[in-house]
Design goal:
It is built from four helices and seven strands. With 142 residues, the chain is an alpha+beta fold.
Length: 142
């Protein structure tokens, strides 16, 4: 049984807000390339990506984010297990008001027999927290 992308994203959003960073980093392949508005950052390990996710989480919480709402804009058809997913992530306050939005493209791969896909690349086309992303630890910049 394949789990829907929207269900996976909702679970990841909840884990992010709860600070379950080890759970989140298990969804990624390493090294993990992340494009931030055209600049490449490469996270070489789950630990390094975890540090970055904590910085990002702190930035999200500091503006009053209490819920993340993923909106799938488009989803590619899987080819040999690989697919692309375009998502807008709304950061909502306690009243449900959208504080900021990220626009992100994910490239995923789901090997035969795997229940869930693994994220192989992230492309932030619009980031809600450019200052936080600029301070993230990484293994290389290109």
């Amino acid at each position: 049984m394949k789990v829907s992308s929207s269900r996976i994203l909702s679970c990841l959003a909840d884990a992010f807000l709860q600070g379950r960073i080890d759970y989140l980093t298990g969804w990624f392949a390493y090294p993990q390339p992340v494009y931030l508005q055209g600049d490449l950052q490469v996270f070489g390990s789950a630990e390094t990506l975890g540090e970055a996710l904590l910085l990002y989480r702190d930035a999200a919480l500091s503006i009053g984010t209490v819920k993340l709402r993923p909106r799938i804009v488009a989803e590619g058809v899987p080819v040999r297990g690989s697919s692309t997913l375009w998502v807008e992530w709304d950061h909502l306050d306690a009243d449900g008001r959208c504080l900021r939005t990220n626009q992100v493209r994910y490239v995923t791969h789901q090997a035969e027999g795997d229940l869930y896909p693994r994220v192989e690349m992230i492309d932030y086309t619009v980031t809600a927290f450019p200052d936080a992303l600029a301070t993230m630890p990484m293994s290389a910049i290109a």
